[in-house]
Design a protein that fits this description.
- By secondary structure, this protein is of the alpha/beta class.
- The chain has one domain: SGNH hydrolase (Rossmann fold).
- The protein has helices at about 1-10, 45-50, 80-85, 95-100, 120-125, 140-155, 155-165, 175-185, 190-210, 230-235, 250-275, 285-295, 345-360; strands at about 20, 30-35, 110, 165-170, 215-220, 280, 310, 330, 365, 370-375.
- The strands form three sheets. The chain has a six-stranded mixed beta sheet. Strands 1-10 form a two-stranded antiparallel sheet. Strands 7-8 form a two-stranded antiparallel sheet.
- It starts with a helix and ends with a strand.
- InterPro entries: GDSL, SGNH_hydro_sf, SGNH_plant_lipase-like.
Length: about 375
């Protein structure tokens, strides 16, 4: 069982603009800076060399849009990619790549790392989970990268204030892995006690970014993890009462809602302390829950909980045949699935989430109008 859990951890946490419609609104952002985990990593984990031959470094990952693997834990674009497109900005390059290649990064950079946690490694050492961590590049490490990079972006306080006033800072989704590590290791009873620590770390990072000059910050909450193929497989129950009308596990979705509620309360406190900043909550749960409730309405004719890429089982998540391995295969049309590899979502699903954030109603307060609309 322990071996099974470790293998699962090696595979986890870690839309499309067919046409864009011009909007006369001036570009509200000149740059985006992103922090998080595999839901928004555009290649940092791959660039870190943390695993010699990670499955996310080869097809079918990236097959839908890029036609090659990019280090994104999906078949194509992520929410952060659609946000960049909507505001007329290039896709965010991973920090570890741009610093190595000395690329110009005026339009922003991505600090997110697949498998990253909100809490530092010391917490997981104390919990006996350190050996299961996919990466040590926690939120605090990512914040350190930003501070290290800042002098190359602007020099004087006036320049920095002017530049960051026109920048969007996306802090998350982060924290999901803090709970995943514990849950997959069987420490379910400890999950709720971890929430205040995770939320505190997120709010601490937001506070520091505001001190560095950030004015506009987007802070995503947790997804409905009870609808995820990995949770549905690992915690499969014979008791029908454990499932909601969408076929999702009530307890885990309830936990995700609890995390989101605590995060929202903390963000409201931050708003009161920083009235000059716009701190926006991104309701990932609500945006995603729509297609779990009515998958066919969103084009997911093969459902929202069954993985497109996998090796069998009720939800096509089989740890002995994970996506990208020789004994698994990807579906013919990922656009008909919401779940990509059992843990992460498809480009099509991320597109719907991004559309819900940018066009509403899943951000509070609303994001600034985008330069383009997601078709």
């Amino acid at each position: 069982m322990k071996f099974y859990i470790i293998l699962i951890l090696i595979s986890f946490t870690f839309g499309f603009l067919k046409e864009v419609v011009s909007n006369p609104t001036p570009r509200p952002f000149e740059a985006i800076f992103n922090f998080g985990d595999s839901l928004s990593d555009t290649g940092n984990f791959l660039a870190s060399g943390a695993i010699l031959f990670p499955v996310i470094g080869k097809l079918p990952y990236g097959e839908t849009f890029f036609q090659h693997a990019t280090g994104r834990c999906s078949d194509g674009r992520l929410v952060i990619d659609f946000i960049a497109e909507a505001y007329g900005l290039p896709y965010l390059q991973p920090y570890l790549k741009v610093t190595k290649d000395h690329q110009k990064i005026y339009n922003g950079v991505n600090f997110a790392v697949a498998g990253a946690t909100a809490l530092d490694v010391e917490f997981f050492i104390q919990e006996g989970l350190a050996k299961l961590l996919w990466t040590n590049d926690s939120l605090n490490i990512q914040l350190g990268w930003f501070k290290k990079l800042k002098p190359s972006l602007c020099t004087t306080k006036q320049d920095c204030d002017s530049y960051f006033k026109k920048s969007l800072f996306v802090v998350g989704e982060i924290g999901g892995n803090d709970y995943n590590y514990a849950a997959f290791a069987g420490n379910i009873s400890d999950l709720q006690a971890t929430v205040p620590l995770v939320v505190e770390e997120i709010t601490k990072t937001i506070t520091e970014l505001i001190a560095e000059g950030a004015v506009e910050l987007l802070v995503p909450g947790n997804l409905p993890i009870g609808c995820s193929a990995v949770y549905l497989t690992l915690f499969r129950s014979k008791n029908i009462e454990d499932y909601d009308k969408n076929g999702c596990l009530k307890a885990f979705n309830g936990f995700a809602k609890y995390h989101n509620k605590q995060l929202n309360l903390a963000l409201e406190t931050l708003r009161q302390k920083n009235p000059h900043a716009r701190i926006i909550y991104a309701n990932y749960f609500g945006a995603a829950n729509r297609f779990f409730h009515a998958p066919r309405h969103y084009g997911f004719t093969n459902g929202a909980s069954r993985a497109c890429c996998g090796g069998g089982g009720p939800y096509n998540f089989n740890n002995s045949a994970r996506c990208g391995h020789s004994n698994s295969k990807a579906c013919a049309d990922p656009t008909t699935y919401a779940n990509w590899d059992g843990i992460h979502l498809t480009e099509a699903a991320y597109r719907h989430i991004a559309k819900g954030l940018i066009e509403g109603p899943f951000t509070n307060p609303p994001l600034n109008p985008s330069l383009f609309k997601i078709a």
